[in-house]
Design goal:
The chain has 4 helices and 4 strands, in the order H-E-H-E-H-H-E-E. By secondary structure, it is α+β, with helices and mostly antiparallel strands. The chain has a 4-stranded antiparallel beta sheet.
């Protein structure tokens, strides 16, 4: 399986577990983001949403600690960090992935 498909599959599995943990049957986060522009720069992101609460920060931490995500990083030769971003005046967190090879 190629890196992008594995990234999407891993993130989908984490999203399903997060929904179950939170008791929310729907929700689009975490969302795997690997555009062609990101691929050209050897990066990707896991979008964890944005809001005034700690939701996106907690979700970013959850993703980073997940064993499946850590295995994906290892298999893909990548590292990841939690990153704060602003959408206007609304803060949010994402996980930035940098592919090293």
């Amino acid at each position: 399986m190629n890196v992008k498909k594995q990234f999407q599959k891993t993130t989908s599995e984490i999203r399903n577990d997060w929904r179950e943990l939170r008791g929310t049957p729907r929700g689009e986060y975490p969302k795997a983001m690997m555009t062609s522009q990101q691929e050209a720069k050897n990066t990707a992101t896991v979008n964890c949403g944005r809001d005034w609460t700690s939701f996106s920060g907690d979700l970013a931490d959850y993703v980073l600690k997940d064993e499946r995500f850590q295995k994906f990083l290892s298999d893909a030769g990548a590292e990841a960090n939690k990153e704060l971003f602003w959408h206007g005046s609304v803060p949010g967190y994402q996980v930035r992935i940098s592919f090293l090879r």
